[in-house]
Amino acid sequence: MRPTSALHAIRVLVPVKRTIDYSVKIRVASDGKSVDTNAKHAANPFDELSIEEAVRLKEKYKDGISKITVVSIGPPKSADVLRTGLAMGADDAIHVEIPEKDGSLEPLGVSKVLAKIVKEGISTGDSKEEVGLVIAGKQAIDDDASQTGQMLAALLNWPQATFASKLELLGTPDLGQEVQVTREIDGGLGVVKTKFPFVMTTDLRLNEPRYASLPNIMKAKKKPFKKLTLKDLGLENEVKNRLETLKVTEPPKRQGGTKVKDVDMLVSKLKEAGRI
Predict the structure, then answer these.
(1) Which of 32, 74, 229, 245 is deepest in the core (most CB within 10 A)?
(2) The domain over range 10-272 is classified in CATH as 2.40.50.100
(3) Which residues form the Electron transfer flavoprotein alpha/beta-subunit N-terminal domain (predicted)?
């Protein structure tokens, strides 16, 4: 996947996951091993940042970005978040559909599917289209794993720039072109330089995602949309979840606080509670 020919525009791949909406109060399901999914769902917020960044790149470098492809790996209802991505400005969508009963794939499984799509240049058309950049959310708000981008970079043997809060292109997008990424790190910011192709994961301060307008929502219905299965990709035996959730419980309810009139009483209360 390294550059071997003349300059050409880059195709951007953006993975999108369907998660329970961030504003919904999560409840434990009756089986005690999962959460109640009978709630409002939406695109993972970090993935919306990824779509927005890809669209901004294409708007700024019209000749440098050939296409933005959004891809989701999940049950049939995941098509909804792909339509959102198309309405925000993506050009086409790929849905790798898995049965509803199987739930979500673990990060390693998702990474293997994405790596297959990238390596084989799978597109919505008949011809193969090389990917030069993957922009993924740094984590999904349901499992908070923060692993898919890093695993994908390892499988592709590509550089990675994770937790990005700023992307600067030092020239027009092209394979081999240098880029600079500002990263959110503990206690401050870090700056790294790398080259296309690479994997980037997005952090909250990268941008503010746009709303999908009604005209764009209508236009999204006519954009190319391809459905695949794990069997179509030859991964039905390679992509298996390895973890089993034994129990899910709600966090303990917070107890009410107590006001104290002076330091002596504060020390006394802390001693009673066994804190000092």
Answers:
(1) 74
(2) no
(3) 31-237
